Amino acid sequence: MKGEVVYFRLFDTGASVDVAEIRRRADSEFISGRAPSEHAAPRYARFPEPLLVTVDRRTLETSRGLLTLDMSARLYAVGAIAVTLRAAFDVPSIRDLIPFAGLRILRDGTPETLDEYCGRIATRIEEDLVPYMRDSYDVRVDPEAYLAYCVTEPDVPTRLYVDARRAEVTALLAADPRPDDISDEEVADTWKNWFSYYKDDLVVIEWDAALVIEPTGKYEDTLAAFEIANLQLLELRTYDAYLDKVIDKAYDDLDSFFSRGGVLRSGREMVKELADVRMDLGEVTDEVENISKFFGDWFLGKVYIGCARKFELESWRRIVNDKMQALSEIYHVAQAEVESRRMFLLEVLIVLLFAVDLVLIFYLG
Q1: What parts of the chain have a pLDDT lower than 70?
Q2: How many CB atoms lie within 10 A of CB 124?
Q3: 9-21 burial by CB neighbour count: b if 16+ within 10 A, else e?
Q4: Of the candidates 55, 47, 56, the residue with the CA atom closest to the CA atom of residue 74
Q5: CA-to-CA distance for 230 and 209, rounded, in angstroms?
Q6: Is this prediction's pTM over 0.90?
Q7: Distance from C-alpha of 74 to C-alpha of 49, rounded to nearest angstrom
Q8: What is the reported pLDDT for 343?
């Protein structure tokens, strides 16, 4: 069987990126946009259009021997860099693809993970992006990794995988060397997310890997759906980690504010800082929510929804929204306390003025 293995690594830059400004000012040729989908789609459906900032082909020593890898890196405005490595394969059967899951790059004989290798590429790109970054946040999370086995010449007719070789596909996506021992329950769970447009194509989605069988080789739109779902997961994980830091600091500031008995100026500064954070986070979370328009029963919509279901994107959205609500409650508590102390100060001033007025009346008659 022939095809290629596609490795995704998505990195958060710690800031939003002004893609439009890069296009205007950078002295480089950028490729933007994506190839149109080969499948029928509603007119409202759209992909985000990142900048393709680097393309390269290298022959590297790996744990699978010498491999020629096609590399690309795309930059998203939400502040993410997607590094993709693609390696062609020609193997006897689907079981022979399992070792590709643990691929390592050898540097001077020392194994290096794909996270580390792709991370160095992303870091070099990020260093050039500093002038175009805005709304930075001091938090980093591990990169989002995904693997797609894209088969153009299967060893058996595609429908046979659906009917008789489900366990082998399950073992491949789990990188398990014992396909014959996979339980029926695990097979059933993996095959909850499979899709087919024609009789000879197939998409099976797991949480960190997918199988794509497409004899025409036209599966770029499917890979784009994988990348976008992983991008949303990465950004939701990032905002979750950032909100943890912000909420912890907000609680500390609020506790300090109450324990001091009230320095009014610092209270106003705290409220302003919380308001700014709420506004910034509201903006970027909206950007992540709107990064794709994949709804309905059309094929790529179903593939994306399958990814979202497997990645638990809705649970991550709920976690982020709950923490945003907690941040809003802290903001309202701080704002109410500042207003309360301001009113108390005004009342004290009014009483003092009234007392001064009485004294003046008493002495001056």
Answers
A1: 26-48, 257-297, 335, 337-338, 364-365
A2: 11
A3: bbbbbbbbbbbee
A4: 55
A5: 11
A6: no
A7: 9
A8: 78
Q: Hey, what are 344's tokens?
A: 């108390």
Structure tokens at 209: 């890997």
pLDDT tens digits along 70-79: 999 999 888 8
Q: Tell me, what's the pLDDT at 114?
A: 95
Q: Rounded to an integer, what distance in angstroms lies between the CA atom of residue 245 and that of residue 278?
A: 13
Q: Is 135 helix (H, G, I), strand (E, B) or coil?
A: coil
Q: What six digits make up the tokens of 125?
A: 């790109």
Tokens of 261: 């008995």
How far, in Å, CA of 105 to CA of 111, rounded?
A: 6
Pairing of strands 209-213, 144-153: parallel
Q: 313-364 and 220-260 are packed helices; what angle lies between their axes, rounded to 10 degrees?
A: 30
Annotate 250-296 with DSSP letters as a single string: HHHHHHHHHHHT--HHHHHHHHHHHHHHHHHHHHHHHHHHTS----S
Q: How far apart are CA 53 and CA 29, in angstroms?
A: 8
7, with CB counted inside 10 A (0-12, 13-18, 19+), is: buried
Provide the pLDDT for residue 290: 61
| Element holding 245 (H helix, E strand) | helix 220-260
325 is written with which tokens? Answer: 């609500």
